[in-house]
Structure formats: C-alpha cells, structure tokens
Amino acid sequence: MALARKIAYNVAASTVAKICSTVLALVNIGFITRYLGIGGFGDYATVLAFLSFFGAILDLGLYSMATREISRQNADEKKIMSNVFSLRLLSSLVLFIIAPLLFVFLPYSEELKKGILIIALSYTFSSSYMVFNGVFQKNLRMDKVTITELLGRILQVIFIMLAVRNDWGFLAIISSVLASSVFTFGAVLFLSRKYIKFSLEFDLVYWKRFLKMSLPVGISAFVTFLYFKMDTIILSFLKGSEAVGIYNMAYKIIENITFFPGMMVGLILPLLSVYVFSDKLRFAKVINETAKVFIIMIIPLVIGTFFLAEDVVNIIGGEEFTVSANVLRILIVALAFIFFGNLFNSVLLAANLQNKLMYVLSFCAVFNIGLNFILIPKYSYNGAAAVSLLTEFLVVVLTTYFVHKYVDYKFSMRGWGRIFLSGFFMFLFLMMFGDLNFAYAGIGSVLTYGLFLWLTRAITVKEVKILLFSGQK
User: Fold this and answer.
1) Prediction pTM value
2) Domains in the chain: boundaries
3) Which of 329, 337, 249 has the alpha carbon at shortest distance from 28?
4) Which of 23, 24, 26, 157 could cross-link with 153 by S-S, CB 3.0 to 4.6 Å?
5) Closest Cα to residue 232, out of 137, 369, 358, 340?
6) How far apart are CA 327 and CA 304, in angstroms?
7) Do residues 302 and 295 lie in contact, with contact meaning Cβ atoms separated by under 8 Å?
8) CA–CA dist 265, 63 (Å, integer)
9) For residues 67 and 218, is the Cβ–Cβ distance under 8 A?
C-alpha cells in the first residue's frame, strides 16, 4: 500500500472508529444518568475525575516522549518501548498500592471511595497500553488502536446495560470502566507484537535520561489536569453531587467531542517532529491545513449548540438535565479554544519546547484554580464553565505567542472568511427554523452549512490532499 493511501486509510478508519466510540460514550451517559439521577451521576463524574487525577500524577510524559523518540531516524525502538513500558507498569502498580492513602480522609461516602479504588486499578491497565500508541502512530496503524478501543467501549455499554437492567448499583457502573480497560490493554499488547518485540527492561541509567526529557511534559499533563478536572473536584467539595452532575452532563458531551482534535494532532505529531527541523514549508502546511479543518468543524458546533442545547442535553441525559443547557453553551465556546490549544501544544512538543509548554500550562492551572475558588461559591456550575472557557482561551493565546516567538512559524487564516460566511448562513437558517423538530433543524442547518462551504469553495480537494498526504515522499 502506497504511503499516501495508507495515511488516508488510517485517518478514515480512525475517524469512523472514534465517531462510533463517541456515540457509544454518549449512549453510556444516557443509561447512567437515567439510572443514577443527577446526584448519582455527579458521584460517577467525581470518580472519573480521580481517574484523570491518577493519570496526571503518573503521566511522566512517557507517551508523548516515546512517540517522539521512536519517530527519530535510527531510533532503537525495542530499547525505548521496553524501558518505557516497564517504567509505566511499575509506576501504575505503585499508584494502585498507595491509592487508598490518597483519599481516605476525603469527605466522601464509603461507596464513592470504593469506586475511586476500582478506578485506580483501571488506570493501571489503561495507562499501560497507551504508551504503545506511539508504535502504531509511527507505523500509520492507529486504526488498530481506535478499533480496539471501540470494541472496549462496546463491552462497556453491554456491561452497563446489564448493570442497569439487573440493578447492580453504582459500583457495577464504575466496574464497567475497569472491564473495558482490561480488554483494551490485552488487545493492544497483543497487536503491538507485530511491530516491536519488546520485553521488560529496567535500565535505570536510561530511565534517568528519558525522564529528564519527559518530566516537563509530565508536569504539563499534571497542570493540564488541574484546569481540566479540578473544577469537578472543587464542585464536589463546595456544592455537592447535584452540582457536579449538572456540570458534567454538559462537560461529558464536550469531552467526547474532543476526540477529533486529539486524534488529528496525534496523527500529525510524528510529521511535525520530522518537518520542524528539516522542511519548514511542509511543517507550515500541515499546521495551517489542520487549523483550517478545525475551524470548519468548530463553527457548526458552536452555532448549532447555541440554538439546540436544550434538545441535546434532553436526548442524552433526559429532561432532568435540562438545566445543563446553559452550561453546554458556555463550554462549547471553550471547546473551540481546546481545538487550537491541542494543535499548538503539539507544535511546541515537536520543536523540543516542552519546557515552554510547561510554563504556559502551569500559569493557566494557577489561573484556573484560583478563579474557580472565586466563582464556584457564587455561581456554582455556571462559574466553573466560565472559568473553563477563560482558561482555554488563555492557553491558546500563550501557546500561539511561544510558537511565533521560538518556532519560526506564522499562523495563516487564509480562506477562513469563506468558512465564516458559510457559518453565517447556517446561523440564519437556525434563526428562522430553529423551532423545528431537533432532527430537522440539525440536519437542515448542517446541509445549509455544507452547501455554502461548497459554493464558496471554502476548502478544496487539493487542501485536503495536503493534509492527508503530507507525509508522502
């Protein structure tokens, strides 16, 4: 298979699998919210926030740095992956052993604490398989990972359906995450053997050298957690489970949409790592065309959500969660900044500027936590949503500044005017027909947007090829 076709297939297969996984994740939310109610869903969201907490503590930058290092010419893949996997496995097991000490004094129920312990065990499996994503990225076979994750998501849906049907309770719902993680870990481990015959290696000298490179990224991951998930934990302390449930009904929708920028950035990171020092023209084209695809996605998401937010939360969570609609309207704007924050974070990583990224994210974390403690007591979940929006905006501003200053790259918005024009016509359609049935309003607005993208030639076939086939020699 030619390289260009392989890239195109990889993008298409990964996108389809990720879309299916996202749909299943939203189905999961629907079952859970209707079964547990607002307060119970708030407890569920609190437990998952601790999954992110565990991941942030022991991220160590292993995944990102492993992907970058094996993408270098003449890289010793076996040595890199054997040591990184061993380091990840050891750190995960240590976390599981000490996890009970981390939350024993928290003001949570015993059931909630047991849920956190189950999630700690789940992290051991999920974090261990993720370090191999770089191997699949380098070999342009991320489709295998995304399809495996899709199968894990299907397993989780089945588990949750059985739990709801048989009334197994809250801990069974949490255990569905563990079941999915164990399956995905086993499958990815098996599939990775085709590309690299790794083994457990405990080269302490190499660990020290690798951690010196990766720890700034790990610290960045921790501070990213602070402004992504600390709002949920702060809400749980200050406002209780119902506020957490209302906020996370909207937040989970946004969180599941962010798969696309994360996937796209993951696919282009190996290319950026090569081109940043060897081919500035291709480097700029990959970034600019990725940004253009992002803005094409962002505009209909923001406009559509402003008009149809109540329908979205009612369909996914049930009428009990209608109050989450305004939170969703705020967070959808934050999502627009998340797209570009992901992109420029990866540009800094590719250019070996992870230290600059660490400074940016650390500052934003302090900003986020401080503002949350100011706004949540007064504005509850709406305050948390507003802080998320402001934080993501700040991330984009600061990372853009550092990219322009240190990477010898200038951001281009060429052709964006046509995209905004197409969005304006979508806005007019929803102004006139937004009271229609949700399906009619949604489909009609998307078709209107797509029609004007085509009429204005907002994006061309050539531009799509530049993005998809930028790795072709």
Assistant:
1) 0.80
2) 3-415+458-468
3) 249
4) 24
5) 369
6) 15
7) no
8) 14
9) no
